[in-house]
User: Which sequence fits this backbone?
């Protein structure tokens, strides 16, 4: 698989441009971190990449058979299921690497509890575990460290670096340290 | 004792009303020459029920009515759920069904009963009427549940390419089952009320409705109350069984 390219991409909502003339190439070699104040189109750009929105103008080229995995801005967990159930829902099964990843993310002890009972930080880490365990060619992370303290953030960064090595990675963040932690180029929108 | 919106039915409250009924019936019998016939006492109703219970005719009538009404109820629940799913997917189906559902809600049940008596035999009357009466609440509540399914979860499932079957169990059913349960609870009572009304008007042979009609013609109020008690028990039974089935399904998908 090669990379993903965006060429002069525009997206507006009710006449107001959310994404204005973005040209970008995403390759496995160069992770990209989108940085911009809130409400300036980071999430819209990520949604365009995931195919959840269509550009008004411009072109997004994604290789055929490409598989995205994502941590959304919201956790988007099935609250009535435990960690295993949430993984099974997406993956069809609990992969061999799941217990080790949950351990690395500090979720082992809570894995049998329903997601509804999780704290904000735990929900974020479970959403990340789900994204990292899914098969993917490209990983989209929309403010993945929201609500995480320093230690948890470091653990998450380490897991992302391992799982996303050699694959396309694009994230949005307000913190330059996140970009540095993933050796990502910063793109200011 | 069962819980309702007004709280549980307390034994003491039921006892007060039964006592009032007993005293009223006794007073009625003392004042009027045929008062005991016109207003049977609870004890007379109980005695009549004890007479009816061992007879084959009782079980045949109760069984036939239960089969017709429960059959219409289940058929309607299945059809309403399937059509709600189809209507949500296809706007034209929704538009097509809209006036039909509005008519089912607005037209008095007796109009449907007369129409069906004209078109079909009285044997089919109660299942058809029950199907018509149960359809709107179940259809509308399932549609509401589908519309309320979490869009963000559906997007997540789309990105991760979660198969439709797994989406059904993980996202759609947890969204649909709570309003479906509320509709089932409402519709079970509605099914018995409309079904028995149809049997009475259609004088459907060998049914509870026919027994009620006979009680009216021969002024046998003990029979009337005894069969009414039977209807109440059967209606509660249908509701309990239907809700139990929904709860088992909800437990499996975690929608509880």
Assistant:
């Amino acid at each position: 698989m090669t990379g993903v390219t965006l060429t002069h991409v525009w997206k507006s909502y009710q006449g107001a441009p959310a994404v204005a003339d973005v040209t970008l190439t995403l390759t496995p070699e160069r992770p990209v971190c989108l940085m911009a104040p809130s409400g300036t189109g980071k999430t819209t750009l990520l949604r365009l990449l995931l195919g959840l929105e269509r550009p008004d103008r411009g072109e997004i080229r994604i290789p055929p058979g490409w598989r995205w995995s994502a941590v959304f801005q919201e956790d988007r967990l099935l609250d009535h299921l435990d960690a295993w159930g949430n993984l099974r829902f997406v993956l069809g099964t609990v992969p061999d690497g799941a217990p080790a990843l949950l351990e690395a993310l500090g979720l082992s002890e809570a894995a049998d509890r329903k997601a509804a009972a999780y704290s904000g930080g735990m929900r974020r880490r479970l959403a990340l575990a789900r994204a990292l365990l899914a098969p993917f060619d490209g990983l989209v992370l929309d403010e993945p460290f929201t609500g995480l303290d320093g230690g948890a953030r470091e653990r998450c960064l380490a897991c992302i670096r391992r799982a996303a090595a050699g694959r396309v990675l694009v994230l949005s963040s307000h913190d330059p340290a996140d970009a540095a932690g993933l050796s990502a180029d910063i793109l200011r929108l | 004792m069962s819980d309702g919106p007004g709280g549980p039915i307390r034994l003491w409250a039921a006892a007060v009303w039964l006592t009032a009924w007993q005293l009223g019936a006794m007073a009625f019998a003392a004042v009027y020459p045929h008062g005991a016939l016109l207003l049977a006492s609870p004890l007379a109703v109980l005695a009549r029920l004890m007479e009816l219970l061992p007879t084959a005719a009782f079980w045949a009538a109760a069984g036939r009515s239960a089969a017709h009404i429960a059959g219409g109820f289940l058929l309607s629940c299945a059809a309403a759920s399937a059509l709600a799913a189809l209507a949500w997917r296809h706007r034209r189906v929704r538009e097509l069904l809209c006036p039909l559902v509005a008519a089912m809600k607005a037209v008095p049940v007796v109009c449907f009963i007369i129409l069906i008596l004209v078109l079909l035999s009285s044997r089919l009357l109660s299942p058809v009427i029950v199907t018509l009466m149960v359809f709107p609440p179940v259809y509308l509540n399932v549609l509401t549940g589908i519309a309320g399914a979490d869009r963000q979860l559906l997007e997540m499932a789309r990105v991760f390419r979660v198969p439709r079957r797994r989406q059904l169990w993980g996202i759609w059913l947890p969204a649909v089952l709570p309003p479906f349960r509320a509709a089932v609870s409402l519709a079970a009572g509605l099914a018995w009320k409309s079904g028995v009304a149809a049997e009475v008007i259609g004088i459907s042979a060998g049914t509870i409705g026919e027994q009620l009609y006979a009680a009216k013609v021969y002024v046998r109020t003990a029979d009337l109350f005894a069969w009414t008690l039977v209807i109440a028990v059967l209606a509660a039974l249908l509701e309990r069984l239907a809700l139990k089935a929904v709860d088992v399904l909800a437990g499996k998908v975690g929608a509880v």
In short: Chain A has one domain: 4-188. Chain A has a mean pLDDT of 93. Chain A touches chain B at residues 50-52, 67-70, 72, 74, 76, 78, 80-81, 85, 89-90, 92, 114, 130, 134 (CB under 8 Å).
